[in-house]
Amino acid sequence: MGFVRFDTEGAVGIVTIDRPKALNALNSEVLAELDACFDSIDTNTIRAVILTGEGDKSFVAGADIGEMSKLSPAEGEAFGKKGNDVFRKIETFPVPVIAAVNGFALGGGCEIAMSCDIRICSDNAMFGQPEVGLGITPGFGGTQRLARIVGVGMAKQLIYTARNIKADEAFRIGLVNAVYSPEELMPAAKKMAATIAQNAPIAVRACKKAINEGLDAKMDDAIVIEEKLFGSCFETHDQIEGMNAFLEKRKEKNFTNS
Length: 258
Ligand code: CAA
Description:
By secondary structure, the protein is of the alpha/beta class. Helices cover about 50% and strands about 15% of the residues. Helix 1 (about 30-40) packs parallel to helix 3 (about 75-90), helix 3 packs parallel to helix 4 and helix 4 (about 110-115) packs across helix 5. It is globular and about 60 Å long. Bound molecules: acetoacetyl-coenzyme A. Acetoacetyl-coenzyme A (CAA) binds next to helix 2, strand 6 and helix 4.
């Protein structure tokens, strides 16, 4: 792949968007490569994924404005679907995905970060949905996910004003969970991913599914989603191993994702 790299460190996968000359902007090729990259990840061995951008300036500076500038309404809609399909794949990916936001996360960059489970960033990061300044709406899920993450009022303010915000403000409004120096960002992301990876994968996946699917349901239905996933953990190898380790006062646990 020319624009997306995949590396592994133990049970942690690292997806890097690698188009630094265009500040990692998402054109159709990058989107197709991202799609193929997530399809190719072996979730039997990879237990957490980190998504980041190449270079020290930009995570993703948005969808590719050059490509979008010539689109018809139907082509615009199709381009939106292309991005939405990939981002939904990330959002529903079986294992957690952490966005390590290392600079600009504008438009499609903010949107791809929001499709991840957890966002952390460097102190030079900048977030925003500048689309209305370009004469379009956010098109890769921004109108939907920003409101769900930071609340309707703040999302409307950010989207209508097209104002970019720095890392400290993103932290204050709950768009990111933590801010690090650029040097500390990837070590922190790897540490978090490794911590997730050492827990029972079967349970971590069920938690992701329960939280995601529950948020789209009424509370009466949402708690049933949880009950079923909770029940599905019992009599698995990992549940027996996890509970035996506790009862035997054993620190070492051999989780097998089964
Ligand atoms: N699309 C295409 N190319 C982009 C790009 C984008 N979103 N963002 C940056 N680039 C390119 C620039 O054109 C430039 O290329 P050249 O060197 O060939 O001229 C290169 O990356 C470096 O960019 P700048 O020279 O502009 O760098 P800067 O440091 O002066 O500014 C920036 C950085 C503030 C991020 C500025 O590049 C910028 O404003 N980019 C656009 C951000 C934006 O509006 N993103 C939203 C896009 S719309 C969207 O994403 C819709 C959606 O929801 C699907």
